[in-house]
Amino acid sequence: MRRARKTDAPGGPVSPDALLVFHGDVRDFLAPGNRADGVVVYPVTRRASIKDVIESLGVPHTEVDAIEVTDGGGGSGPESDPGPETRRAVDFSYLLAPGDGPDGQARTRIDVRGVCAPMDLCAPAPLRPVPLPREAFVADANVGRLATYLRLIGWDTRYDPAARDADVARIAREQRRAVLTMDRALLHRSAITHARLVRAQDPFGQLVEVVRFFGLRAPGAPFSRCLRCNGVLAPVDKAEVLERLLPLTKKYFDEFHRCPDCGRIYWQGSHHGHMRAFLERLARATGDDWLRGPPAGPLP
Ligand SMILES: [Zn+2]
What is the reported pTM? Predict the structure, then answer.
């Protein structure tokens, strides 16, 4: 166990500490010395919400599933856990304040539990009483390829490489979307309720991670969305797009789809085999059959 910082406020009385015990893989966000046991002794030197305290230790609030407080239950370490009957659940607004220890000496123990996969975006949870109406995402600029891959298997995913943090947070709040990002600081924003701080570095690994974390199930709706802009593709008569087709496409293909938002045309062209191989690879990685269901639709 390590102390997060000095506990004695200069010139003032000794403040009761809060003992924070992190459970699950959120421990990975803590300082190296705190990761093994997930225990942080936190000196309460000012009034602060538990959200701010947790995030000051490196854990985005979006990664937390439950917070439980035990007054006077700090003891000297995690082994002093007084048991579940003494804990009470609190939300992110719970305030820690100097001098709040029951007898001025005892510590408050706070158990912080990380979100476990699969996270159901459409079900209420203790810290997220208002679920999302559907599985929809907004991807930050640092996970653009992941956004394309999610569109490829049919999930509604907003992505604008020029969007700033404030834009991503606003879209998440207004359109009720889960945020996907590799930027921890973005997830400190209170407007963001549902999110995944993406761990994998490579885009395909990120897709596997997101599919597993949110429990996305095959077959989805592959090839139903525009890879460029997220629009929902609609069938279009060949005659309507004839002048935009290359000679061989004109000769060998008769079924076309068009993005109503950006106008891009899709058909089952030469990339078909690559796309099927992509879905087979995803199936192997996730143990789910991504080639099941309706026949593959249009392809770029
Ligand atoms: Zn489009």
Answer: 0.88
